[in-house]
Amino acid sequence: EAGVTQFPSHSVIEKGQTVTLRCDPISGHDNLYWYRRVMGKEIKFLLHFVKESKQDESGMPNNRFLAERTGGTYSTLKVQPAELEDSGVYFCASSQDRRGYTFGSGTRLTVV
Amino acid sequence: QQQVKQSPQSLIVQKGGISIINCAYENTAFDYFPWYQQFPGKGPALLIAIRPDVSEKKEGRFTISFNKSAKQFSLHIMDSQPGDSATYFCAASMQSSNTGKLIFGQGTTLQVKP
Lengths: 112, 114
Description:
The structure holds 2 protein chains of 2 kinds. By secondary structure, chain A is mainly beta.
């Protein structure tokens, strides 16, 4: 089966700009997660979708981050406006049963 | 209380040696403890996982040891190979919750020298 696909793989933007990250989960996986790893630190949970509904968004840093999951398929994570501290690697993962996560390769975001 | 502490931050092991990575947690409600392996440019991939009702789980050269009373668990890589060089993350979650989100440790960069 196809894995979790994320794009872009890299993005370099200026502070104040907007960036949208996209995640295509494994087909049929109702659960979709976003995580972020800031340089050298732990991977941190951002939010969890079940189908198109946000189940838990307790990890979203602030209201500059907006996540959507259209029709329970792909998901987007928009950062607007981007700040320097938003730099990091953003991972998307999907699962059928909230246990066997499959992660995408991540989007490396650099805000300059 | 939601933290998972992982050590060491980096580890260098000779080929054929044993690599040991340790993790500790505080929240006794955690009931699922996976280890992830990440190669450069790739996402974390599930390596092995354990539940707290088991003290040890082995899959090939990889073993998780779990100490419930000490709230610690560790990954042992036997006969370490250069191909094992990667970043390893321990994690914990509450499968009984409505989200199953993972709380990760800080990661350990393992280098296995030929």
